[in-house]
Amino acid sequence: MAPTERVDAARVRAWATALASPGHDLSDVERIDLIRALEQLKCVSEAAQATISVDFDASQRAEQADRGVPAAQQGRGVAEQIALARRESPHRGRQHLGLAKILLKELPRTRAAFAGGRIGEWKVTLVARETACLSLEDRLRVDAELAGNPERIEAMGDGELVAEARKLAYELDPAAFVERRRHADADRRVTLRPAPDVMSQLSALLPVKDGVAVYAALTREADRLRASGDRRSRGQIMADTLVLRVLGGGSCATGGEVGVMINLIVSDRVLWGDSDEAGYVDGYGPVPADLARELAGTVGAWLRRLYVSPETGSLVAMDSAARIVPAKLGQLFRLRDKTCRTPWCDAPIRHHDHVRAVAEGGETSEPNGQGLCEACNYAKEAFGWAARPRPGPRHTVETTTPTGHRYESTAPPLTQPSFVEARPGVWTLVA
């Protein structure tokens, strides 16, 4: 292709169509060569996305400035548009845009290796992450050392690259490296995510001294109980001890009383045993019918019934004349939407949003409400964004971005999924 030939979306889609059906009459040598060529193409494509994202950000900021948007608000909603185009969460969109800007201004050699197809986005991210504590001058020096020879950085494994970047960063600015470690304490947090076989993954990011101390305490208790004849495995004892100590002696698994509310969305048909549809535990996700019935009968657990339409699986509507979403209506949004309603964003709901703004005549009602994370709600308020409720079998919102692209979001079904027992005691979610 000639250097001056214009590359647009139509041309790239044509390439994608051609690549969807690669030839099957290749030799094994040709297959390996094609795999390598496609990997280079993937890296080059990611680098092109980064370049285009920086240009889009600059263009949108200039347009917002021309429209009189205050300087502090310029750029709002840009990363979210990039995320929608990439079919990823707004958080990932902000990461992509931030990385693209860093590459352009602070890591030119790494960017060149990226655009040349020698390294992918993950390696680029590692370099940016491990040099974040440095001044621009020192960051450019590490960039030149690591990526000045593109063949060298291409040959590095991820662990080798991280170790080398950390070594160089520490040699150039030990004080900044230590200060970064000190500030990392502010990132401590606890997260929960679903795991296979109706389990959950509870994770804690802690300062090293606290993490080591917690693990040592659980290990010591497991060793003590095992020595006294407890037949549970060490891992089981550690997990049970963590639950018992956090909940003050209560555990749903052991039949104890738990002093917290569990929001369980389940139809009466499931509770009566007439249906094996999945229930839904707020903060976790779908659970099989037998577990839903077990939770409903757990001592000390609260059962919150939410009635649904048998035709659509939607929650019943609730209306209010208040401008601020009342607590119960906001709770309905959260239980109906489960996570942030922005497409591809699975962040927890933090804000109860009027889809059509109150200033535009929007009502405080179930049809005109949605649950959003904080970042998505702020992005929606940026210049050029609009959202409207749309008819649908379940609650549907159409969002229009400043470029005129439209995206629909439909509330997830509440009771349609079901589980099958793949093998004794192991349940699998099916559509």
Order of helices and strands: HHHHHHHHHHEEHHEHEEHHEEHEEEEE
Structural class: alpha+beta
Please identify the oligomeric state: single chain
Overall average pLDDT? 83
Strand order of the largest sheet: 3-4-5
Helix count, DSSP H or I runs of 4 or more residues = 16
Proportion in β-strands: 5-15%
Structure description:
Helix content is 46%, strand content 13%. It has 431 residues and is α+β, with helices and mostly antiparallel strands. The strands form five sheets. Strands 3-4-5 form a three-stranded antiparallel β-sheet, covered by helices on one side. A three-stranded antiparallel β-sheet has the order 8-9-10, with no helix packed on it. Strand 1 and strand 2 (199-205) form a beta hairpin. Helix 5 (108-115) packs parallel to helix 7 and helix 7 packs antiparallel against helix 9 (158-172). Mean pLDDT is 83; it is low at 252-258, 299-303, 316-321 and 417-421.
Primary descriptors:
12 strands, alpha+beta, 431 residues
What's a concise summary of this model?
The protein contains 16 helices and twelve strands.
Topology:
Blueprint: H1 9-19, H2 28-66, H3 78-86, H4 90-106, H5 108-115, H6 121-130, H7 136-147, H8 150-155, H9 158-172, H10 174-183, E1 189-195, E2 199-205, H11 208-227, H12 234-246, E3 264-265, H13 268-271, E4 279-281, E5 285-287, H14 289-296, H15 327-337, E6 351-354, E7 369-372, H16 374-380, E8 386-390, E9 396-400, E10 406-410, E11 418-423, E12 426-430
Antiparallel strand pairs: 1-2, 3-4, 4-5, 6-7, 8-9, 9-10, 11-12
Helix pairs in contact: 2-4, 3-4, 5-7, 6-9, 7-9, 9-10, 11-12
